What we know:
Chain A is of the alpha+beta class and 261 residues long. In chain A, 30% of the residues lie in helices and 26% in strands. Chain B has 2 domains: 1-159, no CATH class; 171-246, no CATH class.
Amino acid sequence: MKASYNYTGRKRLDNSAFDIELYEVSEGPSEFEIALHLDAVSGMPEKSVVWVEAYRGPRVMRFRLRSLSAAGSAERYVLDQFSTGEPLLFRIKIVDEGDSKHPIKGWRDRIRPVVYSASGQKKRSILPVYPCDLGHIAWLLDWEDPTRPVLQVNSRISEARDISSIVKNDPDFAILVFPKVISEVLAKLLADDADGEEDGAENEWIIFGANLAGRPFEGSEDDEGENADLIRRWVDDVVQSFGRSMELVARYNRFKAGELK
Amino acid sequence: MRVLRNRGRELFRNWVLQLADNSADNPPVHLLSDEDTSFGVPGASIVTPRVFSKKYELAVALLPHVEELEGLEVNHDCWAGIWDAMSLLFFESVCPRNADGTWSPNRIEHYIYDSAYTVRHRHRVYGPVTLVRAGGVSLKAFFDSKPCVLGDFEEQVGSRNELAGNPVALQVLKALYVKNDGDAIIPGYTNRKTFRNFKRKLPAPGTLRRFTAISDQLKRTYDLAGISFEGFLELLPAEFTQWLDA
């Protein structure tokens, strides 16, 4: 069992303490709306200020909420320093600005917003796809968030598209890339045994894998070597099942046959 | 101001890569007048090429152009082309030359903007401009070197957004490592030291790498992005006192 020490009295905000929704806009930067629930800020020092940071890698946009007492009402902000479709994360800090050292009294990091597309549709994907310049390689898994990888695809090759669109339209990309991506993600998550800060974050992937394999993963806590072997076998089953359910080989054959005509 | 298109960036990139063959060719500035490789931003003022001997001078001269382009609400996707256009225009300043006049380029990300946070700050225009934008005159002493030199300060501070974009943190760095009566850096601020029981040298107490390491810890407990200068100093451990007193 993990032991932890909290010398500063910093409180971790629960999922129920806030709502963050991100709205993509057809022409213009995305916007987000945040509501911090009153019970989440009870007991905080009087001069506390709530800061919300939207970030991707080192790029951060920082917003000061109106006031602690205004918690409960939703506030909307424009994310004009990010491109539409960037997989953003959010961080909430409740800072005691009455203290010159600005100690953080309440905190939650790596918050994934609920995303709505420009058409108002709720977007959901366990593997966000983000096009960027990858030089001379086609794809890369970005593990900045250790429980939720992002598939970076080379913007020199393709345009930004949803993963389902890529699977649907690009049989060659699907057969060459996705089995390897799934294998790498599951193997890493299971090997790291990351319980992270995110509630159930890795479970999205593990549940996805269990559904495909038809059985949950059962590892060995006593034998590291055996556990690695169990991971490999379970991941292989998941990947084979994925290929079968997506008819990857058949689709690829049809695609190549059409290409050769 | 003209912006390199993707095609222009690619050609500029290829030109930089071939410089390894001891070339002394002139930079391909024609890319900035060809409509296939670049485009003009309506309303943007003209950037006149010149040679800068100091990194600070280059950053101060280019910052108004960057702010002007932001005011013109240039598309976010164009910024890589803007940084690379500036790199091409000021290539004489940002790329070192050998004694025989041939170019001696560093890694490609020094000239061709790469958005990856691990290397982005190395771009010889983007890096200095963004730091000077946040730190202003606090950076003058640190940026007294040639624009083509990256240096430990930029490598350590530029790669950490909570420091690079934080005017107070940059002011604290100046207070620690720049002599009060002038613009000179206190010698040894990037030194390493041998400690008993450690095989390799480690950053000496109170030096720049200790500052970045301590800041990485402090940011988990304190809101460094909003803290005051005095508040930041209060948080620093005793090993930094000698630098403040120097």
